[in-house]
Input
Amino acid sequence: MAEPDRPPRTDRSPWNWLLLIPIVVPLLTFLYNHDEPRLAGFPMFYWLQFAFILLGVTTTTIVYQMTKRSRR
Amino acid sequence: MSDHITEIVIFTLLFLLVSGMGFVASRWRAPKDMAHLDEWGLGGRSFGGWITWFLVGGDLYTAYTFVAVPALIFGAGAAGFFAVPYTVVIYPLFFLILIRLWSVSHRHGFVTPADFVRTRFDSPVLALLIAITGIVATMPYIALQLIGIEAVLKTMGVTGDSVLARHLPIIIAFAILAAYTYQSGLRAPALIAFVKDTLIYIVILVAVLWLPYKLGGWGAIFDAADAKFQASPNPNDGILLNANNQVQYFTLALGSALALFLYPHSITGVLASRNRDVIKRNMSALPAYSLLLGLIALLGYMAISAGVKPLPGSSPGSVDNNTVVPLLFDQQFPSWFAGVAFAAIGIGALVPAAIMSIAAANLFTRNIYKEFLRKDATHAQEANVAKITSLVVKIGAVACIVFLDPQFSIDLQLIGGVIILQTAPAVVIGLYTRWLHRGALIAGWVAGMALGFWMLWQIPNAATGRAHFGGSAFPLSDFGFDTKVTIYVGFVTVLVNLLVAAIVTLILRAAKRPEGVDGTTADDYFADEGDPRIERQRTSTVDSVSST
Output
């Protein structure tokens, strides 16, 4: 049976490109391979990489919300 | 042994509690008919957001991670912190890939990644290679979970002199694990994961609040670690990376991230979820574990600061760094709390070990037994073969620990990460395009494997004085470059694998070699729960409404 009214389903969305940010940024060691400035005693190497977790969560959450399929 | 009585009692009680849960789990969200691989091996493909979060989290962050990552930090410093970027990168990397894999698997009733490859490329041989790679890579991973438990038992002084006495507690623990996995399938680790993670979260939060207070603050902890590494002769340790190990750091993080969701056990957890939304939401919720892992990693520095001395290793003169976290808890906390922490690590080993053995059993059943030994196997026969295989796999893992040097399992696990990466072109790229020829994928796999073994063979381990399989950091100078920079073996081999696959594809296509029939359609990759085209006669769930 044909389903003429429904467009072909797809995962394509410009929002997906955002996912590249949390993939690329945590791999750029020159960004965070420093001791100073320290934050609450943590060298930058550690606190900035902890901050990247937040970056990952934020990005995937935005992409998920923006690409949710509208419920029929 | 007597001064650890409280710890041993608490450890044993919690262990027995979750074992009871494991047996009860077969009735949790129970199906009418357990004699179906979908039910035993994938929990009826019915898990919602919370269960999937605990299950996949409990699966990816294993007891061995909790013991080995801080051990690495304790020994080498910053290089061991790669676990954090690794677990940050993984979720955006797989966000789109996993929903495609879920959809096509849901539509066709695939249980393993090799099932997908079989249908997509119409090649039982390629599927067999993927299945064998998965089983071989998983076995040492299970053995590592035992090493995690062993580190805890050692710290509590539960060790004997004879081979049997030394391993008896682990054999008992695994016999119990094997029994309830046999009975309950994937429902057992899914239920136990709640307890495991709750315990781990409590223990770690207390530890990272209390220990810095006791040790003079985070600044003092990092300074103590810095002082230790400054004094050590090793040029590659320190609380920061140096010019030579930065490439290794990010290639290891990226390569490990790519490898993790290729392991059959991670895919098992994903395929067990109810729909695409559950997976997408989990990709943004699972990093909560990365935070936990980062904090756990830093326990390695706290151990330095607290002056922990690791227990002796299995060979004379060596030390077992895996004991630093258990020792830290033993020395810094009252014994009842240390007991809870030890139980958390011990139970933390059971969840992934159960899922891994189930995943290996699924692979054997679907891609070896049903493909080559008994093509007309019924659902009940499949489920039965899988249950028995899961027992065999666990006996194999215990045998690894009892009869081999534990270091051997760690080496195998190192190789496991590199070999599982060789399935990436067929599984990951195969989800997007069928351009690569099935014969070329086999050629790429062979090239990647061969190069991987050669590279790992070349790497010596300075610390233990062994000449081969000493780590995953390959010096680029061995390729003729004039540099001290090292790179992750898996990263190089997967690139070579892809290159070979692409070249051979062009050759095979020019030679007009048959490509087989693609059993999937473009639309399959977007199917969701309730898709009218699902062919499979699902065994219905008694109470499908009560999901957490």
Observations:
- The interface with chain B takes residues 8-11, 16, 19-23, 26-30, 33-35, 38, 40-43, 45-46, 49-50, 52-53, 55-57, 59-61, 63-64, 68-69 of chain A (CB under 8 Å).
